[in-house]
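Predict the 3D structure for this chain.
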Amino acid sequence: MRRISIGLNWQGGFSMDAVVEQAKVADDSGVDSIFAAEAWGRDAFTTLAILAHNTNNIQLGTSIVNIYSRTPAALAQHFGTLDELTGGRMIIGLGSTSANVTDHFHGIKYGKALTRMREYIEIINTLIADEPLHHDGEYFKGMSRGFTLRDINLPRKHIPIYIASITPKSVQQTARTADGWMPIFTPREQWADQVGPFREAVEATGRSFDEVTIRSSSSVSVTDDPESAKQGTASGAAFYIARMGDFYYEHFVRIGYADEANAVRAAWRDGGAAAGVAAVPDELVEGLGVAGSVEECIEWMEAAEDAGYKLHGVNVREQDPKKRAEIFRQLVG
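Done. Predicted structure below.
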């Protein structure tokens, strides 16, 4: 069986009835998990609370919430409550986002993301384990009263934490401290180069690689209109390169796409979004995902699993619930 996940988009039109229907179909069809995104629009936790009440088996996670806009204790409250409501089905998805978001939306100065992430993980793990909180770090100091999460009936002592990390140092820290890694924008020809060092870092801690989940960054779309899906992949890459600060741009530079990333930034600057998207080369789009038949998507996921990825994000564009359920079942295997 393959582990597949679906994502809930925070952008554009939104119908909670449609989201619940989608979640129920996925829940009944063996889909592993649903991830709710959060940026500067709808929050993730409201939707997850509703889905917690309307599903039975599927895991629910964030992809991602950032480590600046809420304290680690507040996040432990959110996730602890949802884990109670779901009987232990939550995944904590964390990321550092970018200075554009923290500085200009939340009014919090971005900085030392590695240190901050490490403290968040330590504090959240302590509180979910129902242990007294004593923490004196660089960001969170003098926490000496021994607080625990009050009146939450925690169903387990640990909620898996998946980290969206991208720089070499943050990826290494993820391997040492987290239960899962959510990379982004990894072309197919570089899967082994990305997974190999991460696996070595996991095993250097004494853990088995089997204990850690890597969610593939590939876009896997079952669709009769592959060109539309590929356009979506190009749009996402262009936006992150040109509009989400330097981290993602520098990532493309590191993996050998400096000329292409510079061209996208220049095109977006001079001609706007459409020009930026048009500047993303077809070769890169083809490497970042697959769009087409169920069989084509299964072949792609099997190759990703051979490279070490264990969870696959999929997008099934079929609107009929019964047909969508059958596609999910075929993808799961």
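The longest helix spans residues 226-243.
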